[in-house]
Amino acid sequence: MSLGILGQVSKTPPLFTMRSFRGYSGTPALFALPSYGALGAVVPANCWDKPGFKECNARAWQVAEDRCIRQGLANQAYGGDWVKCKEVQASDYAYYGCALRICPPPVKPAPKTVGGWTWASPTPNPSITAFQNHINACLDRTGFKRIGADGRIGPATCGAFKTVGGECPDLFATDPVANIAVCQSYVNPTKLGASSPVKDPVSDEARKLDQQFGGLPWMQPDSRVPTLQQGLNQQLEGHEYFPIAVSGRLDAAMCGGMRFLDDNTGSQWMPTWGKNCQAFTDPRRKPTAKPAGPVGPVAPTGPVGPVAPLVPPGPGPAPAPAKSSNAMLIAGGVLAAALVGGYAWLQSKSGGA
């Protein structure tokens, strides 16, 4: 998960922000410092005008000075170079502690069709079948159960490629891997001998925010939450469940959606974002439309008896991990960035697809 929460770790070098980059435009060029071994990322220019960001950024430098000098981090990890230590620590705090809370990036919904691959299409596609066969060969190599090779993109194929694709670049050299940007949701594969999908790793961004702020506050407005809820909704709708309201608060619907996905797909929303949940409302499955049959003669109507009370439907069954197929999700803002980095890495290793 990142604000992205789910997805693969980027293979690109870390980018850092400096307090002197006040005028950074946020578009074509990204300022980068020499790699000092921290995580870091560039703070978007629009953050500087958001209420509370300047104060939080100033606090970042106070925290960095305390860690590097008073707590001795400069001597422990930076060879005594307290200037370098402060730059890296302040940059990390400004991004993870300030920018991701105060001005998180917008979520871009995944497209439903990319390069001829359509999400949940009823029509099998031979190139998807070939891709699924390559995924199954990789799952065999890495000790996972196979998925169905039905020629249709769905959560199982997306989750399988997200989990093992980087380990078998040779198998995907002839596949149009970039088409996995079509993924709306995923179910991770299941290890041989296991009964549930493997769990996603918790992202570096989630760990950073957790260390700084200890999770989302229950039922309190929080600027991180709308982005997280939009990412959660993309996954829920990808599994044919109704979206939750984008309330901007950690509420029962959000907690229920996160718990449902963690239990059934291998995602890891709850460990960081849901640790303060106090109530859960399970998501509701969308009704499946049934084709209408031929209309026959109408039977005579008898006397009408008492009507049984309506019982509200409970949550639908969990998505089947192995039935639907293909690609790689980038949830919560998630899949697109990981796809670009992962696809470029596959090209560099295998000659591209």
Number of structurally distinct domains: 3
Instruction: Compute the number of helices.
Output: 10
- Strand order of the main beta sheet, please? 1-2
Radius of gyration: 23 Å
Q: What fraction of the residues are assigned to beta strands by DSSP? A: under 5%
Terminal Cα separation, in Å? 27 Å
> Looking at the structure, what is the overall shape?
globular
**pLDDT averaged over residues:** 74
**Strands, total number:** 2
Tell me what the structure shows:
This protein is mostly helical and 353 residues long. The protein folds into three domains: 7-23 and 31-104, no CATH class; 113-197 and 322-350, no CATH class; 204-273, no CATH class. Helix content is 37%, strand content 1%. The chain has helices spanning 53-70, 73-77, 82-102, 126-142, 155-164, 204-213, 225-238, 252-265, 270-273, 335-350, and strands at residues 113-114, 117-118. Strands 1-2 form a two-stranded antiparallel sheet. α1 packs antiparallel against α3 (82-102).
Show the helix and strand layout.
Blueprint: H1 53-70, H2 73-77, H3 82-102, E1 113-114, E2 117-118, H4 126-142, H5 155-164, H6 204-213, H7 225-238, H8 252-265, H9 270-273, H10 335-350
Antiparallel strand pairs: 1-2
Helix pairs in contact: 1-3, 3-6, 4-5, 7-8
